[in-house]
C-alpha cells in the first residue's frame, strides 16, 4: 500500500458517500445518471466475485472495502430506481449502456492476461469502469448544468483513478509491478474527466456552478 | 507479475 493508493481509495469512498448523501438529504436523484450507477455496481460485482465464491473472513480491510463498495453501489441504485424513482431524470439519462457493456465484454475476451472466467470478469470490470462515467457526463451535457454537490462527487470519482495512476507509477518504480490492462484503462478513464476537471477547477472552486453551453 | 490470479488492488 502506498500513499497514492490510500488517497485513491479514500477519494473513491468519498465519492460514493457524497452521492449517497446528496440523494438521501435532497431526497432526489435529479442530475444523477442511474445508468452510470448501475454500471459501477456491475463493475464491483464482477470485480469482487471472489467474495461470493468462497467465504472470506472479514478481518482484513480489503474485504471490508469490497463489501462496502458493492453494498453502497447497490443501495445507490435502489435509491435511484426505486425509492426516489419519481425524481429520476430518465429522459436525459439516455446514453445506451449496451454500447458500453458489449464492447467492454468483447474486449475482455480478446485482450486479457489469462483466458479464464474470473480473469475475464475482472478484465471486463476494468474496461467497463473506464467508460462507466460516460452516461453521467452525457446527462450533464444534455441538461447543460451540474449541481455543485454532483460536481464534488464527479471530482472525487475522477480523482480516485487519477491517484491510482500515480500509484502505478510508484509501484513500477519501486516494486517493478506493472498491470498493463489496469493502467491503460485507468488512463483512458482519467482522460474522460479532463474536460470536467477543467470546468471544476475554473468554476466550482470559485463558488460558481458548472453550466455548459447548452 | 501480471498473471498473478489474486489481484492486490481494489
Average pLDDT figure of chain A: 95
SS summary, helix count of chain A: 10
Cα shape of chain A: globular
Could you tell me which chain pair has the largest interface and how many residues each side has? A-B, 20 and 6 residues
Structural class label of chain B:
little secondary structure
β content of chain B, as a range? under 5%
Number of H/I helices of chain B: 0
Q: How helical, in percent, are the residues of chain A?
A: over 70%
Terminal CA distance of chain A:
43 Å
Rg of chain B, nearest Å: 6 Å
How confident overall, as mean pLDDT of chain B?
A: 66
Low-confidence stretches of chain B: none
Low-confidence stretches of chain A: none
Series of H and E elements of chain A: HHHHHHHEHHHE
**Over the alpha carbons, how many angstroms does the gyration radius of chain A reach?**
17 Å
With strands numbered from the N-terminus, the spatial order across the biggest sheet of chain A is 1-2
Strand content bin of chain A: under 5%
What is the number of strand segments of chain A? 2
Please provide the count of β strands of chain B: 0
GO biological process, one term (chain A): vesicle-mediated transport
GO molecular function (chain A): ER retention sequence binding
Subcellular location (chain A): Cytoplasmic vesicle, COPI-coated vesicle membrane; Endoplasmic reticulum membrane
Keywords (chain A): Cytoplasmic vesicle, Endoplasmic reticulum, ER-Golgi transport, Membrane, Protein transport, Receptor, Transmembrane, Transmembrane helix, Transport
Amino acid at each position: 500500500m502506498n500513499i497514492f493508493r490510500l488517497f485513491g481509495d479514500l477519494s473513491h469512498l468519498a465519492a460514493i458517500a457524497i452521492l449517497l448523501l446528496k440523494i438521501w438529504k435532497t431526497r432526489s436523484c435529479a442530475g444523477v445518471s442511474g445508468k452510470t450507477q448501475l454500471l459501477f455496481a456491475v463493475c464491483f460485482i464482477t470485480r469482487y466475485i471472489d467474495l461470493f465464491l468462497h467465504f472470506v473472513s472479514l478481518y482484513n480491510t480489503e474485504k471490508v472495502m469490497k463489501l462496502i463498495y458493492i453494498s453502497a453501489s447497490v443501495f445507490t441504485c435502489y435509491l435511484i430506481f426505486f425509492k426516489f424513482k419519481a425524481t429520476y431524470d430518465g429522459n436525459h439519462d439516455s446514453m445506451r449502456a449496451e454500447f458500453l457493456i458489449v464492447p467492454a465484454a468483447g474486449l475482455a475476451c480478446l485482450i486479457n492476461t489469462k483466458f479464464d472466467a474470473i480473469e475475464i470478469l475482472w478484465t471486463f470490470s476494468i474496461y467497463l469502469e473506464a467508460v462507466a462515467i460516460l452516461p453521467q457526463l452525457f446527462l450533464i451535457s444534455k441538461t447543460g448544468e451540474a449541481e455543485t454537490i454532483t460536481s464534488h462527487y464527479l471530482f472525487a470519482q475522477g480523482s480516485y483513478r487519477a491517484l491510482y495512476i500515480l500509484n502505478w507509477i510508484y509501484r513500477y518504480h519501486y516494486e517493478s509491478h506493472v498491470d498493463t490492462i489496469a493502467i491503460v484503462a485507468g488512463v483512458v478513464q482519467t482522460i474522460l474527466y479532463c474536460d470536467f476537471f477543467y470546468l471544476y477547477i475554473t468554476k466550482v472552486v470559485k463558488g460558481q456552478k458548472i453550466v455548459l453551453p447548452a | 507479475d501480471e498473471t498473478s490470479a489474486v489481484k492486490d488492488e481494489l
